[in-house]
Structure formats: C-alpha cells, structure tokens
Write the structure tokens for this entry.
Amino acid sequence: MVSKEEICGVIDAIGALTQDEISSVIKELSLLRGDTPLSIPEVKSICEEAEKEHLIVSVSWEEVEGVKETEDLYYISGPNAFPEVPFELSEVIDILVLSKRGVDLSKVALRLNRNLHKRINNLENKIDSVCKGKVHPHDLENLEHRYSDILNQYYDYNFWLSEDMSELEGEIGELSNRIEALRSAQGI
C-alpha cells in the first residue's frame, strides 16, 4: 500500500497534482508492486486526512504554473510533509506522461493568509457571542480548540512559506489574551 509519505513524495517530485492524478499514480504504483490499487474514495480519504495534518495543501489552478482553468483542486506538498519518493516513480511518470509543474508560493501564501485572517475574525466573533452570556466549560473548550488549531496552522504556514505572515501574530496574541480572560473570569 502506498503511504502518505510516498504520496507527499510523488506530489513533491511533480510539484502539483489533482486528486484524479494522485489516484492514477497510486494505481500504477500499486500495479508495479503487485498490490491491490486503492479505490477513488480511499484516495480521497487519504488526501483529506493528509490535508488536515498539513502534509499536503490544496491550491487552485491559478496557483499552479502552466495549467488551464479548471475547477479541480491541485495538491502540493505541505509544511509537515516528509516526502518519500517511491522507487518506481520515474517509471510511473513515463507511463502517465506527467511533467514537472511549478507552483507560485507567493499566491498560495496570500490565499492562506486571507483564509487564516477570516478564521481569526470568525473566532473573535464567537468569543464576542460567548462573552454576552454565561460561559459554559464546553464553550470555553471549543474556543480553546479552535484557537489551538489556528495557532498551529499559523506556525506551520509561517515557517513553511517565505512570505511574511507576521501581521497575523498580533491578532493571534489578542485571541490568546481574550480566551485567557474568559478562563480567569470562570476561575479556571
């Protein structure tokens, strides 16, 4: 079976692949190895899991150099990837006639920065609504979980991308202060 690390290695070697292309590569690798190929839903599930772990990142066609407009998402190797290039990859590339694709990481950084800013604003609004009523421990736990996810994503992407995301640092610090104030108000 093809591992997530190998999927990252395939994507890293080529630059960007659609989910259908990933499925085709996995199928060819499996056949060359004498394994049973994964189904399309299994590949989709692996991609979703790898994206949640920041092993891969979805990008639009506009962020991939030399591709035509499409609704398909492309995947690139992400900040937590430890790519492992499968031995058989060169043969698979020849079979499927794949070529190297460039990715405009500055466009990726701008989009990720905007998305993270939206998530911060959404969490600020949620904190505002929680502050208006009685704070339940479950609400506080939910806010802390969402904050932790934003913080992890910020650090992953800030380390990985060469574009500066430091303007979000102040907003993230303010989120931390507000959540800590809620905790203190609850005597936690």
